[in-house]
Write a structure and sequence with these properties.
Layout (H helix, E strand, L loop, with lengths): L4 H24 L4 H6 L6 H6 L14 H16 L10 H4 L8 H12 L2 E2 L11 H20 L3 H33 L3 H22 L20 E2 L2
Antiparallel strand pairs: 1-2
Length: 234
């Protein structure tokens, strides 16, 4: 009889990959109306509410989709785009290097290249942008799901090792101060809550990848969007 364990592992990895993709989309750019409204759909909203995204507060309570989308676009620009006041979503800045395309940016780019992950050309954002790092991790987790379906234990082990290394050397190093700065600067709960969710998720991912036992990750259905022009090969 075929063991159900590979299927379960694949489903768990798929759910993790969905969450990585969602978080990458949240921080990639101002949200489109289609994306922001998809978060309110009956398919996705309960999952997000279970992860402490509060739909009872603005901008979700604004009257129309257009108002909600505009409010989020203004908030995104204020937080992440306005020079001099922005909470820079870049590893090199958050790690105190004082500039874009610092040593951390180069190290992240080299990490991608080592494992065959290619950014789109021309690249729309630096390799160490939060969205790019999340999308890379999501790619690794989706590859883990594929390997689990094939019952390729060596590939699963290698992919989880790569995830652990990237989280340890990069994203987990700077996500906490980033989330704290977003919490202080945000007007609405949207980016404050998603930054806190991102921090909690990647820190729990690292803890899980560091120990042998598996835990069930937060379930999340797929959401529209999420592939920001990056491709990969193995």
């Amino acid at each position: 009889m075929t063991s159900p364990i590979p299927t379960i592992r694949a489903l768990l990895a798929t759910s993790r990959g969905n969450l990585y993709r969602l978080l990458a989309t949240v921080f990639a750019a101002e949200p489109s109306a289609a994306f922001s409204e998809s978060l309110r759909s009956p398919k996705v909203r309960p999952d997000l509410e279970s992860l402490e995204i509060d739909f009872a507060q603005p901008p979700w309570t604004l009257a129309s989709p257009e108002e909600r989308t505009e409010a989020l676009a203004v908030e995104y620009a204020s937080l992440f785009l306005v020079p001099g006041r922005m909470v820079a979503p870049f590893e090199s800045v958050q790690r105190g290097e004082g500039r874009y395309w610092g040593d951390s940016t180069v190290a992240v780019k080299q990490f991608y290249e080592t494992y065959g992950y290619q950014l789109s050309e021309p690249a729309t954002m630096p390799p160490d942008h939060l969205s790019t790092e999340l999308e890379f991790l999501g790619h690794l987790v989706r590859e883990e799901a594929n390997a689990a379906r094939r019952e390729d234990r060596d590939a699963v082990r290698d992919l989880r090792r790569i995830q652990r290394q990237f989280l340890t050397e990069h994203l987990v190093v700077w996500i906490a101060p980033f989330a704290e700065r977003v919490s202080e600067a945000a007007e609405y709960g949207y980016y404050r809550e998603f930054a806190a969710l991102t921090r909690g998720f990647v820190e729990s991912e690292l803890a899980d990848l560091t120990k042998p036992a598996r835990r069930q990750p937060p379930h999340l259905n797929p959401v529209e969007g999420g592939n920001h022009g990056r491709t990969a090969r193995h």
